[in-house]
Amino acid sequence: MRWGCLCLLLLAQTVLAAEGRDPLDSARWEDMRKHFFPGQSVVFDDRVKVTAPKFAEDSMNVPVLVDAEGLQDVREIVVFADFNPILKILEFYPEQAKPFLGFRFKLQQASPVRAAARTADGVWHVGGAWVDSAGGGCTAPGAGRAAGGWEKLLNEVNGRVWTEPDASRRIRVRVMHPMDTGLAPGIPAFYIERLVLKDEAGKAYLRLNTFEPVSENPIFTFVLPASARPSGMLMLSGVDNNGNQIAARLGP
Amino acid sequence: MKRILTLVVALTIASAVFAAAFDYGLNPRKIADGTYVLIGSTEDFSIANGGNIVNVAFIVTSAGVVVIDTGPSKRYGEQLRAAIRKVTDKPVVKVINTHFHPDHFLGNQAFADVGIAALPATIQGIQTMGGPFADNMYRLCGDWEAGTEPVVPSRTQGEGVEGIGDHSLEFLALAGHTDGDLAVFDRTTGVLFAGDLVFFDRAATTPNANVKVWLESLARLKALPYKQVVPGHGPVVDDARAIEQTRDYLTWLENTLQQAADRGQDMTEVMATPIPREFAAISLVHHEFSRSVTHLFPALEQRVLGARK
Q1: Do B294 and A63 touch (CB under 8 A)?
Q2: What are the chain A neighbours of B298 within 8 Å (beta carbons)?
Q3: Which residues of A touch B139 (CB under 8 A)?
Q4: Residues of chain B found within 8 Å of residue A104, distances taken between Cβ atoms
Q5: Which of A93, A117, B61, B213 could disulfide-pair with B167, CB 3.0 to 4.6 Å?
């Protein structure tokens, strides 16, 4: 019996050693690993940079920047917060875009926010940052719900494309949407599920699956490298969980 | 080593006793004829400072005492009133709240019998936000806030000159730090009580700010024939330094955020902007700049993205 315990302990340590100690020292990390990456290989990697303020001044709008440009061949980036009531914030498939993404999310209490970047070899590279919070981001109704009139602007898109000196393109886009979590009393979950950026020839540059914790009227920052040469204008399309469509052209 | 240990133990006990008494140690300092200030620290709210990060003032006139702001808690208000009593036997005849932020009005309970005056926007702000502010202050400062309840000012203060005893006080209804910022210029002594329109060597806070309006208000204050300026936070000065520092910082803040929005920067990128050397020594400047990005950047970026709302 005692040997069995010891073996289990050693086994646990071996598993832990494979990815290293959680640099954020979160009590929830083991659960996160089991939930998001069962049976897959995971490493903590500071080439996945997650930038966020130390304290959430506005827990409904916590800005995060994920930058995994230090890695080659990033196929997917999953972003989640260990202590949020709904863990997953978004899944980003960079395709032709840089593995670089800015967005805002709702934070319920102090938590690590983590980005896991899957490279072509199937390994998940995890980076993250702690954000402290006074709380309440996920269970409070959004500002549009309080003010009313959100439905008039539903799925309206505002965006711009900047061409940088190195010929890369920076895209900033906002979609008007309540992004209700379903956790505020009497308001069912209502949120954007998918966004795709294409050019006029129909070629896709990036895909994004978004979940309830993404902030109301979400705003994103993407970067296309100079090598991505869209044909004509860039177009954002998507759909929310009620089937409402999103479609807009993005100009300079 | 043993001696150090003894000292540490003694200090720990002393500080525990000190904290248990919840004594702010308020010590009114006379800066002009009949004019006293209580200068708070330039830190953020904490259990260590009990929320005493604010400047409060009172003027002893021949007709009674005028109190400008009541501090961050019921205890502070009570201790302020006791401190006034030590200076004068005259009754408190007028109490104002310069604006609706919690460190300026949560001592109102101790002056409820006098009645408190404020601008209409301040009264409205305390009505809607007083409760949440008091809860948040309890979270930040703990038992220093025990028993603190928001008291909504019962009198509307307008713009204009009032003679109170031997002092002639000019009330200026301004805005910009919040929707209602009341400044008081004592024409008798030349002391300008600027409220949070002026910060000195402590970074300005912007959760309810309109920077353009704020800069207009500062221009108006700067034109007054003052001899001393009592900022809402930071030391008293006898020249334009405090007004100019606040003006210059806010101008830099606004320009920096606008340029970042025009370049298509994301909020976290803006937060990483280096602070210019001239502002580097201002207390909490990195912290407040980051907060200000959260407060002010969304409206600017939305305009750049061409949003209707």
Answers
A1: yes
A2: 61
A3: 134
A4: 267
A5: B61
Per the rule left: phi > 0, alpha: psi between -120 and 50, beta: everything else, A152 is alpha
Length of chain A: 252
Count other Cβ atoms within 10 Å, centred on residue A161: 18
Digit-by-digit pLDDT tens for chain A (252 residues) are: 455 544 444 444 444 445 789 999 999 999 999 999 999 999 999 999 999 999 999 999 999 999 999 999 999 999 999 999 999 999 999 999 999 999 999 999 999 999 999 999 999 999 999 999 887 778 788 887 777 888 888 999 999 999 999 999 999 999 999 999 999 999 999 999 999 999 999 999 999 999 999 999 999 999 999 999 899 999 999 999 999 999 999 987
Nearest CB to B305 within list A53, A61, A158: A158
Which superfamily, per CATH, for A2-250? SoxY domain (2.60.40.2470)
* Structural domain boundaries enclosing B95: 23-240
B102 inside domain? yes
Query: Which of B273, B286, B294, B296 best tests the A interface by mutation, with the highest count of A CBs <10 A?
Result: B294
Contacts of A57 (CB under 8 A, 6+ apart): B207, B290, B291, B294, B295
**Residue B52 and residue B67 in contact, taking contact as beta carbons nearer than 8 Å:** no
Number of domains in chain B: 1
Could you please report the per-residue DSSP string of B190-234? TEEEEEEEEESSB----TT--HHHHHHHHHHHHTS--SEEEEEES
CA-to-CA distance for B162 and B189, rounded, in angstroms?
Answer: 14
Whole-model pTM?
A: 0.90
ipTM: 0.89
Residue-range domain boundaries for chain A: 2-250
Nearest-neighbour CA in chain A from B142: distance (Å): 14
Are the beta carbons of B286 and B249 closer than 8 angstroms?
no
